[in-house]
Protein 1
Amino acid sequence: EVQLVESGGGLVQPGGSLRLSCAASGFTFSSYWMSWVRQAPGKGLEWVANIKQDGSEKYYVDSVKGRFTISRDNAKNSLYLQMNSLRAEDTAVYYCARAEYSSSSGNFDYWGQGTLVTVSS
Amino acid sequence: SYVLTQPPSVSVAPGKTARITCGGNNIGSKSVHWYQQKPGQAPVLVIYYDSDRPSGIPERFSGSNSGNTATLTISRVEAGDEADYYCQVWDSSSDHMVFGGGTKLTVL
């Protein structure tokens, strides 16, 4: 059974940093792109970042470029999101998701339960 | 960047058919995926590559995609289908994943 378990969320002041983790199990982690998707309170889903199987390619939504860094450790079956210079608008539930890509498209076939990040003074 | 437009809400009586649209420029040339999200829960993939269903998703869920509109159709709607639904595509020009704004399905 595929499982994705996020951790590391919490309350942080504006300008602060936080590192999210996602522990994966039930599938060959190193064979899949992985992603972070967030959802602000009462709002819709927003893709945040993707990382290729070997970490050689990474993509970010414009609003987090230069502030957030996605990474992975295939030996530990873990995905990470380092978030720096946090802003109030980064407040959201952050989901770890497995990305299933083909040559023409990609989707998120499994999701974790999410971890809440609150940026507030 | 590529924009996907969904109606904020759709209402349907039990047993009837719900249709949720997702508009985008020439979206018919892209593959569209749909997610269901119930309150307090993570999203669940219900339709992928326009019209395929993951295992465990009822046949009542179907999808189509042509021109500038993709559609998620839920037949014989049940109270348990009440949820938010999101469409999603991969924008190849930017290598970004894009979500629609979401549609709240209300079962009357």
Protein 2
Amino acid sequence: KAGVTQTPRYLIKTRGQQVTLSCSPISGHRSVSWYQQTPGQGLQFLFEYFSETQRNKGNFPGRFSGRQFSNSRSEMNVSTLELGDSALYLCASSGGLAGVGTGELFFGEGSRLTVL
Amino acid sequence: SQKIEQNSEALNIQEGKTATLTCNYTNYSPAYLQWYRQDPGRGPVFLLLIRENEKEKRKERLKVTFDTTLKQSLFHITASQPADSATYLCAPYKMDSSYKLIFGSGTRLLVRP
């Protein structure tokens, strides 16, 4: 069973640009969550999608957005990039037909974003 | 607000010894507590989950305890090996309408050969 796939793995952008990151969850998983990880702040929750609906959102500015497609694949977008957006962006999927369970997350390897 | 605390200082132990990591939480009543392992530059990997009505859970060389009165979980690795060197994250989880997990900052474990 293939794991969570994130693309691209590494990218470099400049301030003011925008970026789109992609995530393919484990087959059968309908929940996709996004996290930002930085050395100073640790793992911070961005948002979670289930069946194309955003169910929860973290405390991030509106420049951070996401969406989920009917095949459960998800994308997140960051507009007007700032230096502080440099981070490892992690996608995680979770299963369960009901969409709520014990909450184990299966993470991808992440997309390392560097903003210059 | 919810607060999760893990030892920020790295834990440095000799191979073969037992490593014990601590996770404390406040302003929170989780139904589960999860532990993850993260290697540098990689995504966290789920290790173990313990329910609020369980005092202890074991998986191979791993043992987790959960004390809801103390609001604390202990994570033990027995007969530690250099390959166990990584950062370990705890995540108390209260089942609600989404899979939002709040993670501790993690404790880095270094096992010396």
